[in-house]
Amino acid sequence: MDIELNIKPLALQGVDPKRPIVIAGPCSAETEEQVMDTATQLANNGIRIFRAGVWKPRTKPGGFEGKGIEALPWMQRVKAETGMLTATEVATPEHVEAALRAGIDVLWVGARTSVNPFSVQALADALRGVDVPVLVKNPVNPDIELWTGALLRLNAAGITRLGAIHRGFSSVDQKLYRNTPMWHLAIELKRRFPTLPIFTDPSHMGGRRDLVAPIAQQAMDLGFDGLMVESHCNPDCAWSDAKQQVLPEVLDFILDRLVVRDNVEATESINQLRKQIDELDNALMELLTKRMRISREIAAYKKLHNMTVVQTTRYSEILDKRGAQGVLCGMNADFVKTVYEAIHAESVRQQIEIMNK
Ligand code: PEP
Ligand code: MN
User: What is the pLDDT of residues 133-145, one digit of tens each?
Assistant: First the structure.
């Protein structure tokens, strides 16, 4: 697939582009006092970009849906009094217009909006001809094409100062995380668009204060560019997302301890190791080819004896045996299951081909 984005650096005034670029602030702008108190503390700790939700997408009606335009002058005060840049979520052309009029410096498209091409197109149309940085959160569902599509729509409207925010994905088997990271999708986005800055949002990913630090560290280990973290002057009393917001001083503590690794392409020793990986990958492909060949022989036998392709007891046996073996070898059980499900699916596909010959 050869889609390309025409991207320029975010060029955020007064912000050091060194990793990680940090955007911090409360989930929602609640009161002028809460906004100013949080912003002042964050600015004193060196944060240069202040986030606050002015319009809040809430799952059910009746919750706090944001202060709306009433909160925009508070954001202007943050900018005037702390010198920080301001950022907020926009979901409709009206939000875009009001935010731009108020001089908001960075806009972001939320996860419930990037999922909808009509909404994204309406935002793109409203942004045509405007030079403002726009960050696109991943859609709630794990669909990288939708995420890419949202970036392409904005880019086609002339937005070149683009970035992405990885905030994790809804998943049926939510365990530890509020939104499962599925890091591979953010990595794939980086592979497609190497110059696109990607921010990790450990707050919405973890949904819990104690997960902010480890997720932020993981983002740095993987080489992502920035962080968007929810921080509130009184997290327990926050009007939205109370469980995941941290005090500005806690954020400072977390950032201080973050190990930021160099994002260098490759060294000689890595190249040596990569050669070994390539050889092993070749061996894996050969083994898989052999395995599929035997599968096809089995299919020929099944056809001759009028047997069905899938025999569930055999399939369960493979999943159980290999799963246990994988765990003994230090691999994650879910990973082994995914690998064997994929191998089995391809094997079934090839067997059906033989059956229909
Ligand atoms: C937010 O940033 O407060 C927010 C609503 O995030 P998301 O769109 O990731 O759910
Ligand atoms: Mn939030």
Answer: 999 999 999 999 9
Structural domain including 139 reads 21-256
CATH number of 207's domain: 3.20.20.70
Question: Cα(279) to centroid of ligand 1, in Å?
Answer: 43
Separation CA 88–CA 211 (nearest Å): 23
Do 41 and 100 have their domain in common?
A: yes
Which helix (H) or strand (E) segment holds residue 166: the answer is strand 162-166
Domain annotation covers residue 245: yes
User: Are 290 and 165 found together in one domain?
Assistant: no
With a 6 A CB cut-off, is 167 part of the ligand 1 pocket?
yes
pTM across the whole model: 0.86
Measure 111 CA to ligand 1 centroid, in angstroms: 6
* Alpha-carbon separation of residue 65 from 15, 28, 61, 101, 321 (angstroms): 30, 9, 8, 21, 51
How does pLDDT run across 157-167, given as a tens digit for each residue? Answer: 999 999 999 99
- Residue 16 in domain: no
